[in-house]
């Protein structure tokens, strides 16, 4: 049986269109590397200065000058390029990265995202998250539906300091695939076997659910 | 943005849907780096009322000189017209509006749009007529002139070599404004002598990563010969 | 500036006259591009009360981590400390002042000093606490945040290869902040594995032209091994 | 017999120190190429994006991608690099070019320089002159002492629009070598055979002349 994470990653990989430039946030999104088909013309951008990352094959020796922004040794695929940090963020700020996946502490129905700071508890710095969140053409949040205490992370309004406002297009959790709309979060898919009531209970945001067209994943 | 696997196209298709009245950046410092073939296609395609952004006006009857002489350019944003007496004439008789910027500020205004900033603060030209024309701001007791980012609808650039994803390599002094303009326009059309497969260009040798480039057009090396002048000095 | 023919020197001489209290830019994103040998020399040389500017704090007990743990750093201007729990601890217990900037803005603030501007206008962070800390300005009806240029007395950079004039070539993701910092400090000290004669580096392959570099120091390739970590993911 | 220009250029070449980066303005200064000794570690910067220009040898074929900012086909010497226009002007604005020679329409005893515009008569644009004049570490003006009508170009105050203010260190004409000082133009050398009176007559600025230490060139 596949895990929730595997199911989320399999679903998330379907967001990627052949020919796109994609950035994978640190944590769970980085694992999407394993889910992208090799035969697609997709380049993975990493903000430390590389476009066209791929994972090392098993047994392939790491190059100590070649990491991604999370510090993992990577290598490059055909069509890759390397560049300095200014060029890397120019790409981001000019929305030349088509799609990014990011984790979240909180995400809300306005599309606001909080994923960098928990005042008094966690503040290691913003890194590249703010620019990615604000400027990448399409931002898909990939996170657990609830925190480890069971509290909803999908909210009507974020409480934590924002990474960027009104930046999220879609949210994928183990429970649902939801799109940010002016009226609320439009639930386009729900986890196999999960009831609409259970989803509503686990969520602290306005959910728009039309059961007649609700997909399962 | 254009998908990576859909960038190679023919020159007429690349130029055809540029609208009348478009603002177009054109690479090149003098002849090297000028996208002569794209400019010839633009001339043939017929767009009017263009605003061009280029370091210079090329020389009479080549490059953007052809477009100016054909009356297709309404406004030229540039640094220097010294080598094109027809452009100076058109400016003086009022048929061509010309906006001048110091060369390095022109480069930075373009780069500024290319990296997604709104403008930058400079001390260049303070105490000259350049500074009189712009707004200034005090930061920590220092007065700086504000230069706004300069954007365009389209950039026409010239590269020595490319791949079909749009990675570009420039050569020698044919680089100049090309890498800056290749970041700064909504749509970036690159002409090149050779389009390789992804992976054929050494990753450390790529000057403009493909993310910035919308379309890649292969042109004949002979198209650059219109810029060749007698060897002087 | 240093004359072209007087740039090669030994590592102790390069570091010795950095004063206490200096502001020092340090290249590198994580380990790649971090000038480990120069940092070790700085540790040995004894300067105190340093302000460091680096993307991150390396990892515990390597690179600038050593300087932080030795109590030699008063202020760190950075983007992210995620991989160095000792640096986070020093920040939390107040022994290290830390100023955070979004990574791309940090890069641009450095580059801004490197090209001789006073600052730039950005919309990054508007609507977040980043924007609350800075001044803003309206230009043509759009509100922009003003980010000031970030300068330093010294930059320590790492290059794969150099020549004795100070031309530099970076490699792979060891480029990162190095070319930006190599423009932005009053004095730029580059460490490299190999110093060639002028003319030995291909002119199109040079990333940082020698004009920006003050001193070039040859280091052993093994000096970078301190940044090697077990292969993860 | 050598011409005035040859004498000026020979004198100007002595300004260059071994190990410097030098920019040669358009016109007469460009001819300094011919006067720089080959055995010096000197790199000539040209603002179109090359550091380390040299003239083509006679018979050497031009490369159509390799010009200097005046449009002349050039080539490069050992230690050269090429770069884009932003990098080229970063070098200038950061005063990483040690020395530049420029022509002048007018230059005055405050060190003000006018060499880009004659309102109503000549205004082809500023090019790179403003940034070079304002920011290069040392600016030496190389110009004729008088215009073609015999009017002084060396003035107490420039009348034409300035290229940059207080930017000139030294002026070399066919008649004299003069340094800008707070008290006036300090004449350090005077042309062989020229009288101090003739120099004063040809000049419209305060000249400081100490005949006991006055060199000849």
TrEMBL record, chains A, D:
Keywords: Transferase. The keyword Ribosomal protein does not apply. Coiled coil: none annotated. It comes from the Bacteria. GO terms for molecular function: CoA-transferase activity. Belongs to the 3-oxoacid CoA-transferase subunit B family. This is 3-oxoacid CoA-transferase subunit B. The lineage of its organism: Bacteria, Pseudomonadati, Pseudomonadota, Gammaproteobacteria, Oceanospirillales.
UniProtKB/TrEMBL annotation, chains B, C:
SUPFAM superfamilies: NagB/RpiA/CoA transferase-like. SMART domains: CoA_trans. Transmembrane segments: none annotated. It comes from the Bacteria. GO terms for molecular function: CoA-transferase activity. Keywords: Transferase. Belongs to the 3-oxoacid CoA-transferase subunit A family. This is CoA transferase subunit A.
């Amino acid at each position: 049986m596949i895990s929730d994470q595997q199911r989320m990653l399999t679903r998330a990989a379907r967001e990627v269109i052949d020919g796109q430039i994609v950035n994978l946030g640190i944590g769970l999104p980085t694992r999407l590397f394993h889910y992208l088909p090799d035969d697609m013309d997709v380049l993975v951008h990493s903000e430390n200065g590389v476009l066209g990352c791929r994972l090392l094959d098993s047994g392939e020796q790491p190059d100590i000058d070649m990491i991604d922004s999370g510090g993992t040794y990577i290598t490059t695929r055909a069509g890759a390029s390397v560049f300095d940090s200014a060029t890397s963020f120019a790409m981001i700020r000019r929305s030349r990265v088509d799609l990014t996946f990011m984790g979240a502490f909180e995400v809300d129905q306005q599309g606001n995202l909080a994923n960098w700071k928990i005042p008094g508890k966690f503040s290691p710095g913003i890194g590249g998250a703010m620019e990615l969140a604000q400027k990448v053409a399409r931002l898909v949040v990939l996170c657990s539906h609830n925190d480890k205490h069971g509290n909803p992370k999908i909210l009507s309004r974020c409480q934590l300091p924002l990474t960027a406002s009104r930046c999220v297009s879609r949210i994928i959790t183990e429970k649902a695939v939801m799109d940010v709309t002016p009226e609320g979060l439009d639930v386009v898919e729900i986890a196999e076997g999960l009831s609409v009531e259970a989803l509503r209970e686990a969520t602290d945001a306005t959910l728009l659910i039309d059961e007649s067209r609700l997909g399962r994943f | 943005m254009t998908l990576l696997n859909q960038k190679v196209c023919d020159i007429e298709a690349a130029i055809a849907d540029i609208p009348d009245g478009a603002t177009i950046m054109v690479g090149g410092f003098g002849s090297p780096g000028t996208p002569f073939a794209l400019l010839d296609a633009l001339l043939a395609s017929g767009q009017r009322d263009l605003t061009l952004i280029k370091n210079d006006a090329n020389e009479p009857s080549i490059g953007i000189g052809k477009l100016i002489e054909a009356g297709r350019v309404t406004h030229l944003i540039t640094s220097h017209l010294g080598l094109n007496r027809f452009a100076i004439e058109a400016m003086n008789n009022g048929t061509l509006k010309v906006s001048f910027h110091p060369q390095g500020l022109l480069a930075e205004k373009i780069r500024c749009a290319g990296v997604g900033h709104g403008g930058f603060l400079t001390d260049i030209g303070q105490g000259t007529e350049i500074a009189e024309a712009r707004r200034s701001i005090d930061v920590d007791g220092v007065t700086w002139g504000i230069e706004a980012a300069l954007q365009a609808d389209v950039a026409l650039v010239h590269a020595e070599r490319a791949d079909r994803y749009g990675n570009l390599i420039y050569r020698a002094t044919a680089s100049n404004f090309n890498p800056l303009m290749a970041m700064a326009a909504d749509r970036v059309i690159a002409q090149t002598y050779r389009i390789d497969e992804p992976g054929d260009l050494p990753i450390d040798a790529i000057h403009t990563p493909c993310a910035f480039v919308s379309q890649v057009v292969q042109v004949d090396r002979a198209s650059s010969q219109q810029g060749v002048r007698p060897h002087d000095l």
